[in-house]
Amino acid sequence: MPQMLNCSEHANDDDLQYHTTLLLYHLVEWCGSQLQFSVQDVHQMRERISGKIVQIQLGNVVKLRIIDRVPELQ
């Protein structure tokens, strides 16, 4: 799983974990209250994101991005 990079000025890692869970619930609800994927889909996704990092910024707006890892974080 990719690392999460906390880009928030006033949020600690516990806040980050809490808001990430809320974002997941929001996504599932937004997609009709159900997301479904196969084990093969998960393996393919893990391969694609192995060189990525999740960047999250908490504030008045929550921003979540998936970006390429910088070499020093690989």
What's the number of extended β-strand segments? 3
- Amino-to-carboxy terminus distance: 12 Å
The main β sheet shows up as: 3 strands, mixed
Q: Globular, elongated, flat, extended or rod-shaped: what is the shape?
A: flat
Mean pLDDT: 83
Instruction: Encode the helix/strand succession as letters.
Output: EHHEE
User: What does the radius of gyration come to?
Assistant: 14 Å
Q: Indicate the low-confidence ranges by residue numbers.
A: none
Give the helix level as a range of percent: 25-40%
Number of domains: 1
Supply the helix-strand structural class.
alpha+beta
Structure description:
By secondary structure, the chain is of the alpha+beta class. The protein has one domain. It has helices spanning 13-30, 39-49; strands at residues 4-6, 52-57, 63-68. It has a three-stranded mixed β-sheet, with helices on one face. Strand 2 (52-57) and strand 3 form a beta hairpin. It is flat. It starts with a strand and ends in a 6-residue tail after the last strand. The mean pLDDT is 83.
Outline of the structure:
With 74 residues, this protein is of the alpha+beta class. Helix content is 39%, strand content 20%. It has one domain (4-73).
Descriptors for this entry?
about 70 residues, alpha+beta, 2 helices, flat
